[in-house]
Amino acid sequence: MAVIFASKLCAADSCFCDRCLREIGEPARKAMIVDFAKDNARARSVGLLPVRSLSITPAAAIGGCFENTPQAPFIIAELLGSWNNRLRSDS
User: Fold this and answer.
1) What's the whole-model pTM score?
2) pLDDT the model gives residue 3
3) Domain map (residue ranges) of the chain
4) Which of 42, 63, 66, 77 could form a disulfide with 72 if both were Cys (CB 3.0 to 4.6 A apart)?
5) Which residues contact 63 (CB under 8 A, 6 or more apart)?
């Protein structure tokens, strides 16, 4: 969401710095996922992480379809992420 509202280059830079800082914590996050996974599902939990990356990879090509409204992919991603979080909290 921050990228949508970043109208200046400095604001966009801060968004990307925030993303880089998140990547620093990635190994700890994956370790936490494995730790919280059930014993019989640990390999499956880690094995599904690359699937998420495969779904994100085509985003640049799809984003090119939104030349008139460059914010649209970010808004769609926010809506899908919120929907996914709502589904997970219900179960």
Assistant:
1) 0.36
2) 60
3) 26-90
4) 66
5) 70, 73
pLDDT in tens, 34-54: 788 888 877 777 776 666 667
Q: Would you say 77 and 83 are in contact if contact means Cβ atoms under 8 Å apart?
A: no
Phi-psi region of 29 (alpha: psi -120 to 50; beta: other; left: phi over 0): alpha
Distance CA 34, CA 42 (A): 6
Sole residue written with tokens 């030349």? 67
Rounded to whole angstroms, how far apart are CA atoms 88 and 83? 9
With 80 as the cut, is the pLDDT of residue 85 above it? Answer: yes
Structure tokens at 77: 């991603």
Contact 68, 76 (CB under 8 A): no
Name residue, tokens 């019989």. Answer: 40
Residues 60, 24: Cα–Cα separation, whole Å = 23
Band (pLDDT 50/70/90 cuts) for residue 27 is confident
